[in-house]
């Protein structure tokens, strides 16, 4: 039996996976009802569900009438008891043995979220479905993937449960490696590199493994686009050291972790010919344009999450990718998965996600263009009741103890795949710049930064990274935008950028408030090179995984440690004169 299972795992049947997806989505409404019934059947005896008086009923209407819509704050006491070792059925019928940590880059501290076998199964279902559609458009052979993945340490909660970031929980699961092997995309790097304790050393070795297996690399990927850009920015700095390692067959002394050194010693052999090839290729690149296809000539595509807060990195990623297509990965969060990219040819800016109707029960709060929290009067609609072109906030119920949980994401319905909607990610609901009657989302901030950054193009400068803060300690309050630049810019140029930023926020509430000085002049603060690396290091120091790092686009007042890093690295400050 064991050999049969292994044989099944080894053979990946692409057309069968696509066929299963087509069947699921043709009858999405019925599958949704069955999924809710299954979730409620499995967990009917839980303390959480018992209190809402479902009395054994599992139909959607009773569920919606009885069980309230909640946020993480509402469920936190229950999750904490699970983490502290309470074995009674609190949120789930079967005990939860693993806790996922959200990235913590949004609110400044990670949230605890239950993780179980069902979530792992839906992760593998998403990976397989996504790969099947991707491989149909961009077939890859028996090659390797250069994956910039990093696993943070798992630790034990007070109650003895394993806790780690969602990505760590996935990478450490035996199913992950089997699935990757079945899909013919094993990682270039050994486990010791992925699970290494120092991400700087792991990154160096990921790059080294990629170069050693350069001709076998068929895909370059990471969880987020940021990690890929970060990796190749690092390559620009360390490529000569990597070439020396390959030439001599000896790993650089910068890598000190014994387990990584041992694993790499098995891969590294003196190869002067390969070293010369890499040296020549890097030397003749113009400003590193097309670096990826030059060093990894058989790469078919670049793959990772490229929407939302990752969009600002696309310009740099395209620079490194040359003509290679950028394929956006699937849509999920630490709490669970939502949808899969079944149209991989679409560029990241247009990507949509088809909701998988069997991985959870989905509801959608209609927003009607209103992000101001006034939507409570709007009753949520079901998966098959959403309307084309409308925006919604996602509410979902999963197999791991989250019931009618507000995910905090705003999505737009762009089409339908059979009976299931195809969603475009719009923004996080809580990432709003707001002082008075103004409401600016992460997307508004991104567009403002892009508009202002055009003033830098003539000088061949770029915004390496950015974030924002609402300063309400001043009267009137004002927006503060932090930029890290790739080089030196003149005061005149940066003053123009500052004024442009202020004018680029076209929200009516912002413009009218600026005109009457109810909101003060926008401030642009330039930080030292490497400041956003310090933020990344700080995040990793708190136990986060690089794979899950997202630069927070708006730093709230509670995130004092981040504000301290930013403020202590400011080198220049400019105040807008746009409304004077």
From TrEMBL:
Give the species. Answer: Nicotiana tabacum
Domain (GH3 C-terminal) ranges = 443-556
Q: Which family does it belong to?
A: Belongs to the IAA-amido conjugating enzyme family.
What's the encoding gene here? LOC107769747
Short name of one Pfam family: GH3_M
List, for all copies, the residue spans of the domain called GH3 middle. Answer: 353-428
- The answer to whether the entry has keyword Magnesium is no
Q: What is this protein called?
A: Jasmonic acid-amido synthetase JAR1 isoform X5
Query: Which keywords does the record carry?
Result: Ligase
Give GO MF terms, alphabetically. ligase activity
